[in-house]
Amino acid sequence: MYRLLIVDNEVLIVDNLVDLFVKTEQFELEVHGACTAASALELMARTKIDIVLSDIRMPGMNGLELQQEINQQWPSCKIIFLSGYNDFEYVQQALRHNSVDYLLKTEGEQKIIDTVGKAIRQLEEVWGKERLIEQAKQQMQVTRPLLHKEYMWSLLQGETQALRQLPGKFEELQIPLSAQSPVLLAVGRVDDWRDDFSSADRDLLLYAIRNIADEYWSAGARVVSVAFDMNKVVWLMQLIEDKEPSMSKIKEAAWTRIVLFAHGTAEAIQMSCKQLLGLKVSLVMAGEPREWKQVAEQFDTLKLLLNFGVGLGQESLLFDQNQMEQLLPQGYAHEIRTGLKQLTSLAAYLENGQRYQFFIDFANLVSLQDSTKESTDCLRLEIALTLASIFLAYINRWGLHGTVSDKLDLNLLTRFYPHRSWAETVNHFTSLAEMLFEIKQKGQEFEENDIVKHVQWYVKQNLSGDLSLTQIGEVVGHNPYYLSRLYKQIANENLSDFIAGVRLQKAKELLSQQPFRIGDISKLVGFTSDHSFYRFFKKAAGITPQEYRDQTLGK
Question: Domain 2-127 belongs to what topology?
Answer without folding.
Answer: Rossmann fold (3.40.50)
